[in-house]
Amino acid sequence: MVDLDEAARQLRLASHDAQVAFDCIGLGEMNRAHTHAVFARAAADAAENALRAALLERGIPLTAAAED
């Protein structure tokens, strides 16, 4: 069974890294901002994959909007 806690954890990581990227931009630290933006994207993608797996495991069809 897919653990939804992992999806939630990944979303928290994505949120944190997005905030750090935002703060780095304000400080003019573009390399660090880019690094954290990439980390945020990776965590968001991992959360999406976990949610998709959980939905499919439960037999819940994905909507057309969710498949884009």
Tags for this entry?
3 helices; mainly alpha; 68 residues
Task: Give the topology, please.
Blueprint: H1 4-27, H2 30-57, H3 64-67
Helix pairs in contact: 1-2
What are the segments in which pLDDT stays under 50 over at least 5 consecutive residues? none
What is the number of helices? 3
Tell me about the largest β-sheet.
none
Overall pLDDT: 91
Percent of residues in beta strands:
under 5%
> Strand-and-helix sequence, N→C?
HHH
- The global form is elongated
Q: Give the structural class.
A: mainly alpha
Number of domains: 1
Q: How many angstroms separate the termini?
A: 25 Å
Descriptive notes:
By secondary structure, this protein is mainly alpha-helical. The chain has one domain. Helices cover 82% and strands 0% of the residues. The protein has 3 helices and no strands. The chain has helices at 4-27, 30-57, 64-67. α1 packs antiparallel against α2 (30-57). The radius of gyration is 15 Å and the shape is elongated.
Quick overview of this protein structure:
The protein is mostly helical. 82% of the residues lie in helices and 0% in strands.
